[in-house]
Specification:
single chain; about 5% strand; two-stranded antiparallel ribbon
Length: about 70
Amino acid sequence: MPTTASVVRSDPKLLGGTPVFAGTRVPVKALWDYLEAGDPLDRFLEHFPTVTREQAVTLLEQACEKVLADAHPA
């Protein structure tokens, strides 16, 4: 499975270093904005066809794993 590092890039020469999906100019934050607004993943992918489903799912899975790893059970 790809890692977050393989699907996200941050380059000061590209959008001022804003994290983007690798190989695109699509900011990662755009995915969070769509999901926060209640839009399904498919709508995001329709609007940003340069982002693959694999990239988006990998990012979401890695974010989930990070949150769970940082959780401190009561």
